[in-house]
């Protein structure tokens, strides 16, 4: 050690790069698993961006009514199939803040359609934190305050209106509450059944394993879409939209569990022969404790990755059923219900903005797939 004039002590020994590298590797091995996972996940930029985007979407769900300028079923009879309106900031070279031009419906005698002409001489500023249609914040607190509203005497259709004069943008926000939640409920049911039956079959084996495997094979041999249609058609038509929503979620979860159960069974068949499992059994641990404390934690990384990849399948399943008219029904609002209203190709050709609800479905499904890929890679942090 050498003491400098500023009081610091410096080691005179030569720098050993190999020793420093070994210390870094040892620090990695001693780090908690979640630190290694996060460190690896940060390098997967697409998965990280998708995770932040999905987190923002789910945090926004309780406040959909506050963000939406209109109610989900609020109609404007004078603006059927109104086109998207642009938000402007400058008028005649001067800044007046965000505003829209009022649109007036005029009959086109050549095409026999209504066309909407903006009045460019009358800018109407958008109102913020204004009163509008009543809604429930987070489904609990009644409120009528909206983040922004249409100006007095004008409309504010950011993504146009549908055949009944309802704002497409507002309906997409309200529809996200059901379409994004159905995946979480469905995956909860699917994972509960899949982990339960898969762990029993893989751990105990024997006749129990044989019976569960035959049930899995029967369920996997059934055609998926016709089975969805049959079960959805059995739901009474006089049930409330909330009851139909939960039934559809449970149906999707029940039909999705066999694939996960087979994966859990295969993993348990290999893990139950490990020494730490045998040691726990010899020390008197019950079968339930061995499964919960010793087997499932070693399989948790695969379960998390499978969950993120299964949720978009649930969302697409609800969308398909609602699109076919066998899922959620009006007055419930979901992306599938909105697509059901826009399934007329002639209307989409004339009013293309009615097909906008398919865009959030595509974006959300891609985001979940990218997040699942990132988690699948990072949950094995020692893999290069």
From TrEMBL:
Per its UniProt record, what PANTHER family does this chain match? Answer: OLIGOPEPTIDE ABC TRANSPORTER, PERMEASE PROTEIN, OPPC IN A BINDING PROTEIN-DEPENDENT TRANSPORT SYSTEM
Subcellular localization(s) per the UniProt record: Cell membrane
Predominant place of localization: membrane
User: What is the organism of origin for this protein?
Assistant: Ruegeria atlantica
What range(s) does the ABC transmembrane type-1 domain occupy?
A: 176-372
The UniProt entry, under InterPro entries, shows:
MetI-like (IPR000515), MetI-like_sf (IPR035906), OppC_N (IPR025966)
- What name does the UniProt record give this protein? Dipeptide transport system permease protein DppC
Keywords noted in UniProt: Membrane, Transmembrane, Transmembrane helix, Transport
User: Any transmembrane segments, and where?
Assistant: 46-68, 172-205, 225-255, 303-330, 350-371
Its GO CC terms are: plasma membrane
| PROSITE patterns with a match to the protein in the record | ABC_TM1
Q: Which Pfam families does the protein's record reference?
A: BPD_transp_1, OppC_N
How does this protein sit in the membrane? Multi-pass membrane protein
Please provide the Gene Ontology terms (biological process) for this protein: transmembrane transport
Q: Which family does it belong to?
A: Belongs to the binding-protein-dependent transport system permease family.
């Amino acid at each position: 050690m050498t003491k400098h004039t500023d009081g610091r002590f410096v080691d005179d020994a030569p720098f050993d790069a190999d020793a420093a590298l070994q210390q870094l590797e040892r620090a990695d091995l001693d780090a908690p698993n979640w630190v290694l996972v996060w460190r690896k996940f940060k390098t997967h930029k697409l998965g990280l961006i998708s995770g932040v985007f999905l987190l923002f979407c789910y945090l926004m769900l309780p406040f959909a009514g506050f963000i939406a300028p209109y109610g989900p079923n609020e109609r404007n009879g004078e603006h059927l199939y109104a086109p998207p309106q642009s938000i402007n900031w400058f008028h005649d070279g001067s800044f007046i803040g965000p505003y829209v031009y009022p649109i007036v419906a005029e009959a086109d005698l050549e095409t026999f359609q209504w066309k909407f002409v903006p009045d460019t001489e009358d800018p109407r500023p958008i109102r913020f934190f204004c009163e509008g249609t009543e809604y429930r914040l987070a489904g609990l607190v009644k409120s009528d305050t909206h983040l922004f509203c249409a100006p007095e005497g004008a409309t504010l259709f950011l993504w146009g209106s549908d055949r009944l004069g309802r704002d497409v943008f507002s309906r997409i926000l309200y529809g996200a509450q059901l379409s994004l939640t159905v995946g979480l409920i469905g995956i909860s049911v699917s994972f509960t059944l899949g982990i339960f039956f898969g762990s029993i079959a893989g751990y105990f084996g024997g006749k129990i394993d044989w019976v569960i495997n035959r049930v899995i094979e029967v369920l996997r041999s059934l055609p998926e879409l016709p089975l969805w249609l049959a079960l959805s058609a059995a739901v009474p038509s006089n049930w409330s939209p909330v009851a139909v929503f939960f039934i559809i979620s449970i149906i999707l979860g029940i039909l999705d569990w066999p694939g996960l159960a087979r994966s859990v069974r295969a993993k348990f068949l290999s893990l139950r022969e490990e020494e730490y499992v045998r040691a726990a059994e010899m020390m008197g641990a019950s079968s339930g404790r061995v499964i919960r404390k010793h087997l499932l934690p070693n399989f948790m990384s695969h379960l998390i990755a499978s969950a993120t990849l299964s949720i978009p399948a649930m969302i697409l399943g609800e969308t398909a059923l609602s699109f076919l008219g066998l899922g959620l029904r009006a007055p419930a609002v979901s992306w599938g219900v909105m697509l059901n209203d826009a399934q007329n190709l002639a209307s989409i050709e004339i009013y293309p903005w009615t097909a906008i609800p398919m865009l959030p479905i595509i974006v959300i499904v891609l985001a979940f797939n990218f997040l699942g890929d990132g988690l699948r890679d990072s949950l094995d942090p020692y893999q290069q």
